[in-house]
Design brief:
Layout (H helix, E strand, L loop, with lengths): L8 E4 L5 E5 L4 E5 L2 H21 L10 H7 L3
Length: about 70
């Protein structure tokens, strides 16, 4: 079994809603708090890999933290 580590970006909008983006997998989770969006993000990733396994999807290579931080500087 392979182990993957994907960088995530956590941010808050003007209304106080929190979002967790995992750009490499094109996933976005939200929540009322940072913790809730992180928990929802973990569920998204779990579902993504379950479906990818079921449909023999090619798993994208994770970006480096440096590359992600350049795309999302804040």
């Amino acid at each position: 079994m392979n182990t993957y580590v994907y960088p995530a970006v956590l941010y808050e909008n003007k209304d106080g809603q929190h979002y967790l983006s995992i750009p490499d997998l094109n996933l976005l989770a939200n929540g009322d708090t940072a913790e809730e969006s992180f928990t929802n993000g973990k569920e998204c990733v779990k579902s993504y890999f379950e479906l990818a396994s079921k449909f023999n999807t090619i798993i994208p290579t994770p970006s480096s933290y440096v590359d992600i931080s350049k795309k999302y500087p804040k």
